[in-house]
Amino acid sequence: MYCEDVAVADIAAKVGTPFYLYSAATLKRHFNAFDSGFDGIEHLTCFAVKACSNISILHQFAGMGGGADIVSGGELFRAMKAGIDPSKIIYSGVGKTEAEMREALFAGILLFNVESAQELDRLQKVAAELGTKAPVSFRINPDVDPKTHAYISTGLAKNKFGIPVDEALQEYVRAQAMENIEVLGVSCHIGSQLTQVEPFIEALRKIKIFVGRLQAEGIKIKYLDLGGGVGITYDDEEPPHPHVYAEAVKNELQGMDCTLILEPGRVIVGNAGILVTEVQYTKVNSGGKSKKRFIVVDAAMNDLTRPSLYGAFHEILPIRKTDRKKQEVDVVGPICETGDFLARDRLLPEARQGELMAVMSCGAYGFTMSSNYNSRTRVAEILVNSDQVHIIRRREDYDDLIRGESLVEVT
Ligand SMILES: *Cc1c(COP(=O)(O)O)cnc(C)c1O
């Protein structure tokens, strides 16, 4: 298996395993595939930093004109370090602290996506203290079923996100009267890994009707933010091509005079990265009638959480092609949890100790969700560009594990 012009095995020999591996050419192609769908209309593609937040990758998107969708002060810090223009940064999330608001106001971001009445009050207060005006868009909860995994559905009335359409109008009226708030937009984000266009369009129709009501109140909307991107193929999903999504959105937007903002994450980076891991052991546990085969690898649920957290499917491929016969196996990590698996009941060619495997489609919500559980060092991130191999995050060492801890003697 190759990443651009470099054999994956050669990278493993150099940096050790496990590691995340990204292709610069694929990142570029995917960013353009999404962004170019909206050619011809005023728009801004703000990459969702939480999907993949390495500063080298953010920097690449900045160079292609991309902005950032952030959800914390830490992501603001990253986006700025990566050279993303603050006037292209939008700030989403239900729990912004005062300190985070100050940092974002100081940086001069494009928009705060406000998600509650209390958040609006807090933002007015913080902006007043700084003697500035906070640019605001409200995140509307359109109560649309995105038909995706429950944990990544965000646009239903029962989810914690956004303000219900019916309550939003009064918040806009209130905001309009606030001295240190500038009302500029409306936003929504109904969920992630959507494999159909219809829920997006249903949400957009509701937003359009709502914008009409705002206009009737004399409130002008400059930015319309449609949230995250479309889903990707992990297994046999058939998500729409970004251009199909873009055409449907453009069609629905006709006659509206505002700049479109998009916050794609997964669709750009998901299939631009893999996780490379080495087989440590193979074992068979048999008891009674059952016989179960395991491949124990050196990557675990702390490195890639999605299978454990969502029951997510990631294809697993041997790095070298093989004709060996297939067996049903669980691919598991070394962590002391039964939930520590990368794949379950999967037909894979017989694997042997020391061989390398690729966990596919790991570019989004892979490294960013990783942790130090079981005191495992977080893995390296590698970016390949043609024949160049760049370590864009070194593997952590044991000192990293206890950084910030102090040895207190309690008697
Ligand atoms: C997570 C998130 C996104 C990105 O979603 P993808 O499905 O990865 O494109 C966009 N906007 C907001 C507010 C988010 O929370």
Quickly list its features.
411 residues, binds pyridoxal-5'-phosphate, TIM Barrel, nine-stranded mixed beta sheet, Lyase, Ornithine Decarboxylase, Chain A, domain 1, 26% strand, alpha/beta, eight-stranded parallel barrel
Brief characterization of the structure:
The protein is of the alpha/beta class and 411 residues long. The chain has helices spanning 8-15, 24-35, 55-63, 73-81, 98-107, 117-129, 165-176, 198-216, 242-253, 266-269, 306-310, 398-402, and strands at residues 2-3, 6-7, 19-23, 43-48, 67-70, 89-91, 111-114, 134-141, 163-164, 181-187, 223-225, 259-262, 273-287, 290-297, 316-318, 326-332, 341-349, 356-359, 380-385, 388-393. Helix 9 links the parallel strand 11 (223-225) and strand 12 (259-262).
Question: What's the helix and strand layout?
Answer:
Elements (H helix, E strand, L loop, with lengths): L1 E2 L2 E2 H8 L3 E5 H12 L7 E6 L6 H9 L3 E4 L2 H9 L7 E3 L6 H10 L3 E4 L2 H13 L4 E8 L21 E2 H12 L4 E7 L10 H19 L6 E3 L16 H12 L5 E4 L3 H4 L3 E15 L2 E8 L8 H5 L5 E3 L7 E7 L8 E9 L6 E4 L20 E6 L2 E6 L4 H5 L9
Parallel strand pairs: 3-19, 4-5, 4-12, 5-6, 6-7, 7-8, 8-9, 8-10, 10-11, 11-12, 14-16
Antiparallel strand pairs: 1-2, 3-13, 13-14, 13-18, 15-18, 16-17, 19-20
Helix pairs in contact: 5-6, 8-9
Bound molecules: pyridoxal-5'-phosphate.
Report on the architecture of this protein.
With 411 residues, this protein is α/β, with parallel strands linked by helices. Helix content is 29%, strand content 26%. The chain has two domains: 93-262, Alanine racemase (TIM Barrel); 271-402, Lyase, Ornithine Decarboxylase, Chain A, domain 1 (Beta Barrel), CATH 2.40.37. It has helices at 8-15, 24-35, 55-63, 73-81, 98-107, 117-129, 165-176, 198-216, 242-253, 266-269, 306-310, 398-402; strands at residues 2-3, 6-7, 19-23, 43-48, 67-70, 89-91, 111-114, 134-141, 163-164, 181-187, 223-225, 259-262, 273-287, 290-297, 316-318, 326-332, 341-349, 356-359, 380-385, 388-393. The strands form three sheets. Strands 3, 13, 14, 15, 16, 17, 18, 19 and 20 form a nine-stranded mixed sheet that branches. Helix 8 packs parallel to helix 9. The chain is globular. The chain starts with a strand and ends in a 9-residue tail after the last helix. The model has no long low-confidence stretch (mean pLDDT 96). The chain binds pyridoxal-5'-phosphate (PLP). Pyridoxal-5'-phosphate is lined by residues 48, 50-51, 69, 92, 189, 192, 227-229, 263-267, 364. Residues 48, 50-51, 69, 92, 189, 192, 227-229, 263-267, 364 line the site of pyridoxal-5'-phosphate.
